[in-house]
């Protein structure tokens, strides 16, 4: 079955359950077909095309700004929906027993059960995956028709705009969530009847001493997340993801943003840059990776305990200095 048909069937099935945003794959392909027909116009247009490089001739609807703005809007809607729903699911997983009971009383029993959480996570990951593949295929088709690299350039642009779904910190959290659920099941000794697989190829590994979260989502999509903080050059502790997608230790991020841990990253100046990509305005919307933190604590117990003691002493010192300064400012000493 061709991917376009498979994608349309998937989205139709999902929209019967809930209203999901998606890529207008069929519509975008039609735009590109019109563009292809124009490429076969007489030699007058062909010569005009050569003068302007390998772009479409004259008033092509694609190059006029129909294709990319439409795809960008669809990508924004997909990422927003995915982030919101992944966040709700993970908050429920980490919620207190009281909150889970409230959810159960409201009638949503699927989301409070172990199997229900796994299935919900599986649905979210499948949604992210199939849309990532759809976007990749349509951009590849664009470049093939135009004999250009504008599709790849657009992909780089949306990554900077933080609307690439595979860059979402919530995908990283879902991967950690999957491993945590499996480990919890092993520790409790519970046996589930035919449990649905969330991410079959998902694992926490060490490669040359460096920690990675690795997941093969399909034959064509693989996600590898480096869990080494590029500031302290150690395994991330109390991990946080900046809006650009880079992951750091919380205290390292505070240091890079020139803020005290008492004030937190929300107090960071918008002009402060990510140490890796040099993007600005990346601290205020940072996401605490709680599931990843649980996974690292479970997988690196000795390191985690040693780092916890060190960070606790440093946080107490910073808090003492902060309140000493506030008292001196108040008293005028």
Mind explaining what this structure looks like?
The structure is a single chain. By secondary structure, this protein is mainly alpha-helical. It contains eleven helices and six strands. The protein folds into two domains: 1-34 and 57-103 and 110-189 and 197-216; 227-305 and 318-328, Zinc/RING finger domain, C3HC4 (zinc finger) (Herpes Virus-1, 2-Layer Sandwich), CATH 3.30.40. The N and C termini lie far apart (76 Å). The relative contact order is 0.08. It is globular, with a radius of gyration of 24 Å. A three-stranded antiparallel beta sheet has the order 1-2-3, with helices on one face. It has a three-stranded antiparallel beta sheet with strand order 5-4-6.
List the helices and strands and how they pair.
Blueprint: H1 3-17, H2 25-38, H3 43-51, H4 62-93, H5 97-105, H6 114-146, H7 150-160, H8 169-188, E1 203-207, E2 210-216, E3 222-226, E4 239-241, E5 247-249, H9 250-256, E6 287-288, H10 290-299, H11 301-331
Antiparallel strand pairs: 1-2, 2-3, 4-5, 4-6
Pfam families: zf-C3HC4
EC number: 2.3.2.27
Domain RING-type: 229-278
């Amino acid at each position: 079955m061709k991917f376009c048909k498979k994608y349309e069937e998937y989205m139709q099935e999902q929209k019967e359950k809930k209203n999901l945003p998606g890529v207008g794959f069929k519509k975008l392909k039609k735009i590109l077909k019109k563009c292809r027909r124009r490429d076969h116009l007489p030699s007058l247009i062909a010569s005009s095309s050569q003068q302007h490089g390998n772009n479409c001739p004259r008033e092509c609807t694609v190059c006029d700004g129909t294709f990319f703005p439409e795809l960008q809007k669809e990508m924004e809607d997909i990422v927003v929906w995915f982030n919101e729903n992944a966040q709700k699911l993970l908050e429920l997983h980490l919620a207190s027993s009281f909150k889970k009971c409230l959810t159960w009383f409201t009638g949503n029993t699927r989301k409070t059960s172990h199997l229900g959480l796994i299935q919900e996570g599986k649905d979210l990951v499948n949604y992210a995956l199939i849309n990532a593949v759809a976007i990749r295929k349509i951009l590849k088709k664009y470049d093939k028709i135009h004999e250009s690299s504008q599709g790849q350039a657009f992909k780089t642009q949306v990554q900077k705009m933080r609307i690439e779904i595979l860059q979402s910190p919530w995908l990283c959290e879902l991967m950690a969530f999957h491993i945590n659920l499996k480990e919890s099941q092993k520790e409790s000794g519970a046996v589930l009847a035919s449990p649905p697989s969330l991410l079959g190829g998902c694992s926490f590994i060490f490669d040359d001493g460096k920690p990675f979260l690795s997941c093969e989502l399909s034959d064509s999509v693989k996600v590898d997340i480096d869990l080494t903080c590029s500031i302290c050059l150690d395994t991330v502790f109390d991990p946080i993801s900046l809006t650009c997608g880079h992951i750091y230790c919380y205290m390292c991020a505070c240091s890079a943003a020139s803020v005290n841990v008492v004030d937190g990253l929300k107090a960071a100046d918008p002009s402060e840059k990510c140490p890796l990509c040099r993007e600005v305005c990346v601290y205020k919307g940072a996401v605490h990776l709680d599931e990843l933190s649980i996974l690292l604590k479970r997988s690196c117990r000795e390191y985690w305990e040693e780092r916890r003691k060190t960070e606790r002493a440093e946080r107490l010192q910073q808090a003492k200095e902060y309140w000493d300064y506030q008292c001196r400012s108040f008293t005028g000493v």
